[in-house]
Amino acid sequence: MATACKQYAMPSLEDNSVMINGAALDDETVGYDYEFLPSLDNKYMCPICLLALRDPVQTECGHRFCHLCILRCIRKKARCPVDQITLHSNQLFLDRSAQREVLDLKASCTNQGCEIVMELRNIKEHELHCPHRRSPCKNGCGLELLSQDLVFHEVNQCPRRTVTCPTCQQEYAFNMQKQHEEDCKQFEPVVCEHCNHEVKRYKLKQHVSSECPQAPIKCVFHKVGCHEEYPRHDIKSHMDSTTQIH
C-alpha cells in the first residue's frame, strides 16, 4: 500500500505552533464528520477519530490516519496506535490517492431540512449558502434561525433586541425595559395639580390637555368673546346652557 504514496516532509513535532492546511497541531481538527451515502467504508475511516480521513497519511506499517490525528498521537507516544510499531513523523507518507477517493465520497448536507447529497469536496461551499443554513442571532440571545427569518427576529422578536425609549431616547435591550422604566425620570409618578391623580411624568402633559376632568378648559367660543373657563367635566353643561347666548 505504501508504494502508492508520496513521501511527505513532516514538520517537527517539537513545534507546537506548526500549521497544517490552516490547522494548528494543538487545535481540535479531526476527520470529516458527515453522513455518507453509501455508509463510510472502513478503509476511509481514521482509526483514531473514527471519522472520514482528512488529509490522509499512511505509515510504513500500512495504516492510514488523518494527518493531524497521527501527529498528535505520536507526539505523545512514538508508536503506531494500531500495531504499536515504533513510528516517527519522517515515516509518514501523504496518501494522495486516498485523499482523492475520500473527497469523491457522497456526503449529506448537515443543515436540518436540506436533502442535498454531493461530493465531499463541494459540501462545505454548499453549506455556506444553503437555504436551510441556520445562523446565530447577532444579539446573543442563543437562538439559531434560518437566514430568511433571522433579520425579522433580530429586529422585532429577540428579547435582547435594541429599542429606544420614546421619552428619553436612550437605547437599551428590550429585556431591560422594566429596569429602564424604573431608572428613567420620565417614568416617575407625579400628581396632577388639578385632579390629584397620579400619572407618569411623560404622560402629564397629555393628561392635562386631553384627559383630566378638573383641568380648566376655555369655552370653544373664546375667540368670539366668551372668556369663561370651566373644569373639563363641566364644559359640556356650560355649552348646553349658553348655546343661545353664544
TrEMBL record:
Pfam families: zf-C3HC4_2, zf-TRAF. Keywords: Metal-binding, Zinc, Zinc-finger. InterPro entries: Znf_RING, Znf_RING/FYVE/PHD, Znf_RING_CS, Znf_TRAF. A zinc finger (TRAF-type) spans 153-236. The keyword Ligase does not apply. GO terms for biological process: innate immune response; lipopolysaccharide-mediated signaling pathway; regulation of canonical NF-kappaB signal transduction. GO terms for molecular function: ubiquitin protein ligase activity; zinc ion binding. Residues 46-84 form the RING-type domain. It comes from the Eukaryota. The keyword Aminoacyl-tRNA synthetase does not apply. Residues 153-236 form the TRAF-type domain. PANTHER family: TNF RECEPTOR ASSOCIATED FACTOR (PTHR10131), TNF RECEPTOR-ASSOCIATED FACTOR 6 (PTHR10131:SF152). This is Uncharacterized protein. It comes from Ciona savignyi (Pacific transparent sea squirt).
